[in-house]
Amino acid sequence: MTRPIILGSTSPFRKAILEKLAIPFVCCAPDVDESARNNEQPKDLVERLAIEKAQAVAKNYQHGLVIGSDQLAVVDGMVLGKPHSHEKAVTQLKNSSGKVVTFYTGLCLLDVESGAYQSLVEPFEVHFRTLTDAEIEHYLKLETPYKCAGSFKSEAAGISLFKKLVGDDPNTLMGMPLIRLIELLRNQGVDVLALANEHNGNR
User: Fold this and answer.
1) Do residues 156 and 143 make contact, with C-beta atoms less than 8 angstroms apart?
2) Which residues pair with 103 in a beta bridge?
3) Which residues contact 16 (CB under 8 A, 6 or more apart)?
4) Which of 17, 19, 93, 159 has CA atoms 20 to 30 A from the CA of 171?
5) Angstrom distance (rounded) from CA 159 to CA 149
6) pLDDT band at 81 (very low <50, low <70, confident <90, very high)
7) What would the pLDDT profile of 17-49 be if each residue is shown by its tens digit?
8) How far apart are alpha carbons 12 and 32 in whole angstroms?
9) Which of the residues are catalytic?
10) For this UniProt entry, what is the primary localization, expressed as one broad class (predicted)?
């Protein structure tokens, strides 16, 4: 019996990324406190939260594979959250100008029946150009990325802010490292291409 795949997230970005694989899955919101612990490093935090999200969602199922994920953006050792306002977005982009913002994405794949899981942290670097105040204003008016960590959308006009991107998988920047996820699924005996063909009627 094919184990169902459950995405432990309601993020439209992660859902859209996972849909690229053309495999069947359902989404379930994890109920997890995302607060950092004392002196917890960003890499440790995103891995712990990815695991805890998968474990929280697993409680709702008797069998299946649960995907948990979490992401943080860091510049100069400081975590960049979602700005939620124009003023904070301006500050974030000014602080990122000419610097490297590192995104850490925690990923966990948990087998509901056994409770066993695989987890990892995938880094991705965004190298910013030196931005003028006018460029920042033009960009924010264009895309209003106030619900995006770091105040930009890399999949859209945000690409105009960068000098280069450094990482193994561009999907990582949007919250889901597909190459690593496929590896974890393969470790669980899931052939993504075969599953996609079966799901889409291409037997």
Assistant:
1) yes
2) 73, 124
3) none
4) 93
5) 15
6) confident
7) 999 999 999 999 999 999 999 999 999 999 999
8) 18
9) 70
10) cytoplasm
E strand residue ranges, 115-174:
117-128, 162-166
The candidate with the shortest Cα–Cα distance to 67, out of 13, 113, 28, 21, is 28
85 burial (CB, 10 Å; 0-12 / 13-18 / 19+) is exposed
Rounded CA separation 16/73 (Å): 20
**Chain-centre distance for alpha carbon 91:** 23
Tell me the residue type at 77.
G
Beta bridge partners of 105: 71, 122
Q: How far apart are CA 92 and CA 80, in angstroms?
A: 7
> How many Cβ atoms sit within 10 Å of the Cβ of residue 87?
9
Helices (H), the chain: 12-19, 42-58, 86-96, 133-143, 178-187, 192-199
Tokens of 145: 């990325």
Model pLDDT for residues 142-159, shown as the tens digit of each residue: 999 998 889 998 888 999
